[in-house]
From TrEMBL, chain A:
The chain crosses the membrane at residues 25-51, 71-94, 106-130, 158-186, 207-229, 263-285. This is Sugar ABC transporter permease. Keywords: Cell membrane, Membrane, Transmembrane, Transmembrane helix, Transport. Belongs to the binding-protein-dependent transport system permease family. It is a multi-pass membrane protein. It is found in: Cell membrane. The keyword Cell division does not apply. Its main location: membrane. CDD domains: TM_PBP2. It comes from Bradyrhizobium campsiandrae. InterPro entries: ABC_transporter_permease (IPR051393), MetI-like (IPR000515), MetI-like_sf (IPR035906). Residues 72-282 form the ABC transmembrane type-1 domain.
TrEMBL record, chain B:
PANTHER family: INNER MEMBRANE ABC TRANSPORTER PERMEASE PROTEIN YCJP, MALTOSE TRANSPORT SYSTEM PERMEASE-RELATED. Belongs to the binding-protein-dependent transport system permease family. Coiled coil: none annotated. It is a multi-pass membrane protein. Keywords: Cell membrane, Membrane, Transmembrane, Transmembrane helix, Transport. The keyword ATP-binding does not apply. SUPFAM superfamilies: MetI-like. The chain crosses the membrane at residues 15-38, 77-100, 112-133, 145-164, 192-214, 249-268. Residues 77-268 form the ABC transmembrane type-1 domain. This is Carbohydrate ABC transporter permease. Pfam families: BPD_transp_1. It is found in: Cell membrane.
């Protein structure tokens, strides 16, 4: 499965060596479009953004802004609790979907839907379900208990939990799919041998499945954490950062500052996240280009 | 035929005990959206699990643009289509050329470009959005479709280059050698040998880029604001501007908007799963 990125530079392709110059010219010409895109829309914006965020006063302002501290804590909760719960469920479900049953095959086709459809309409659908007056959840609570249901999105803890739930709903199928491919790559003989020896399901998981999947599992968890830092939709479309800006995460906070025309604060908040993001990115790149 | 043993029944029951909650969890938000689309307003807001009078009236309102929020529905649908198609074509062009250059022509510095691209792939898109917004302003592209197209090409191409580079590496070098023997130029190799062999990966990457652009909300709402320039997801977000939003129409439009990507996804599922897992699974 691992395809190395390294090691192909040392051996120049022999047939091209006789006509090295035209091939190399073409190589540069064909690489040029991406380099242009990269320079114009990655390098320039990033440098410009860093330049905007250079003044120390921005960081003082951020430090004094309680919304920033709250967003940083929310982001940590989202990553540490939300992602780990999601990956554990994905690990569990990958075992379920690896079962050979025709109805499970069909279920796996349906299970992909949240990932295959755009997130905007489905998140808004959840948002209306949670509406305290007209949402279907509180209607059901009322008809069963006679009591009014809670005002779901008006409590910061509940609202953030719901945003994490929406995130899990949306991205669980993708990670489950990845873990299923990891699981199916394990030799079946191992399980048959364990069956003969009378191993329990936990022993099979502990001594066969987990050792062969742990690298993949950790890679997926880190990758999911990096990407979740950029998950704007789950929070913005469900809670809009509310109530009282208490459910922001770093990705929505940057956009909030941007909307308030405080671009340097927006950039500064992103710069503050970099000490956490860059080691993860470095680790991932190491892992992928091995 | 023998009867299933007690043990088999117990296993099946346990599997169902997982399968049923998984099914409900997956379907409830989607069913809720569908329910709103076929419900008259009063049924939708009364929390019924099935409307008393299911109707297609909401679809009629959307298709005839008979509501304030929907007056530019067709042009917004067209914008979404056009932008997704342009992003697909441009990403394929940029990424295929780069992958060919790095993998087949072994251009000096190719490895470094690949690492830079990979680095971009890992930077959360919402973080890049802030400086990107300002940059597009500096380039004078705000409120222009090109802003969104170029931004999405920037986001889609790192992954595209990476997957295509991996796929190119698997093609035997002998093909290029033989073509060179026959006197083929580099461009001919690219067109006549490389592109046909890469078709499955190109389909996967094209689909990936098109879906990414069609589904994008954040960049679209930052970079486009004029009602006749915005894409459908931005229009859906704009429904929330009013306190008494017509949610049944919002869900109907959302349902229509969600259908094409779902159809594309299922049509190209085999390519998508192969291509995407090749990228994410690297143990």
């Amino acid at each position: 499965m691992a395809i190395t990125l390294s090691g192909d530079q040392s051996i120049p392709a022999p047939p091209l060596s006789s006509r090295l110059t035209p091939a190399q010219i073409w190589g540069i010409v064909l690489l040029a479009p991406y380099l242009l895109v990269f320079l114009a829309f990655v390098v320039y914006p990033v440098c410009y953004g860093l330049w905007l965020a250079r003044a120390p006063s921005n960081y003082v302002a951020l430090y004094n802004d309680p919304i920033f501290a709250r967003a940083a804590v929310n982001t940590l909760i989202f990553l540490v609790i939300g992602i780990n719960i999601k990956m554990l469920i994905a690990l569990f479900l990958s075992g379920f979907f690896a079962q050979q049953r025709s109805w499970i095959k069909w279920l796996s086709v349906i299970f992909i839907l949240p990932w295959a459809v755009p997130s905007i309409p489905t998140i808004l659908s959840v948002r209306f379900m949670l509406n305290p007056e007209w949402g279907v959840i509180n209607h059901l609570i009322f008809s069963f208990t006679g009591d009014d249901g809670p005002n779901w999105l008006n409590d910061p803890t509940v609202a953030l939990t719901m945003a994490i739930g929406v995130h899990i709903w949306k991205s669980l199928p993708f990670w489950t799919l990845i873990l299923i491919t990891g699981r199916l790559a394990i030799s079946h003989d191992l399980f048959e041998a364990a069956e003969v020896d009378g191993a329990s399901w936990w022993q099979k998981f502990r001594f066969i499945t987990w050792p062969s999947m742990q690298t993949l599992y950790v890679t997926c968890t880190l990758l999911s954490m990096i990407w979740t830092l950029g998950d704007f939709n789950s929070v913005y479309l469900l809670t809009g950062g509310g109530p009282a800006d208490l459910t922001h995460v770093l990705s929505t906070l940057g956009i909030r500052y941007l909307r308030l025309d405080q671009l340097s604060l927006a950039m500064a908040s992103i710069v503050c996240a970099m000490p956490f993001v860059l080691p993860l990115v470095y680790f991932m790149m190491k892992r992928l280009s091995r | 035929m023998k009867l299933p043993s007690l043990r088999e029944v117990a296993t099946e029951a346990r599997l169902l005990l997982i399968g049923i909650p998984v099914f409900l969890w997956t379907m409830i938000p989607i069913y809720h959206m569908f329910l709103f689309a076929i419900s008259p307003k009063e049924d939708a807001f009364s929390g019924k699990l099935w409307p008393d009078h299911p109707t297609l009236h909401n679809f009629e309102i959307v298709f005839k643009q008979q509501h304030y929020f929907l007056r530019d529905f067709y042009i917004q649908f067209w914008n979404s289509t056009l932008i997704a198609a342009a992003v697909g074509v441009l990403t394929l062009f940029v990424a295929t050329a780069a992958a060919f250059s790095i993998s087949r022509l072994k251009v000096p510095g190719g490895r470094m470009v690949l690492n830079l691209a990979l680095f971009t792939y890992f930077i959360p898109a919402a973080f890049l959005a802030v400086p990107m917004y300002r940059t597009m302003g500096n380039y004078g592209l705000l409120n222009n479709h090109w802003a969104l197209i170029l931004a999405m090409v920037t986001i889609a191409s790192p992954y595209a280059i990476w997957v295509l580079k991996q796929a190119s590496d698997k093609l035997p070098v002998e093909l290029d050698e033989a073509a060179v023997m026959d006197g083929a130029t580099t461009l001919q190799i690219f067109r006549l040998v490389y592109l046909p062999l890469m078709m499955p990966s190109l389909v996967a990457i094209g689909t990936y880029a098109v879906l990414l652009a069609w589904n994008e909300y954040l960049y679209a709402f930052l970079l486009l604001s004029n009602d006749r320039e915005i894409t459908l997801p931005v229009a859906l977000g704009n429904f929330l501007a009013a306190d008494d939003s017509p949610w049944e129409l919002l869900m109907t439009t959302g349902f229509i908007y969600a259908l094409p990507p779902a159809a594309v996804y299922y049509a190209f599922r085999r390519y998508m799963v192969g291509g995407l897992t090749a990228g994410a699974v690297k143990s």
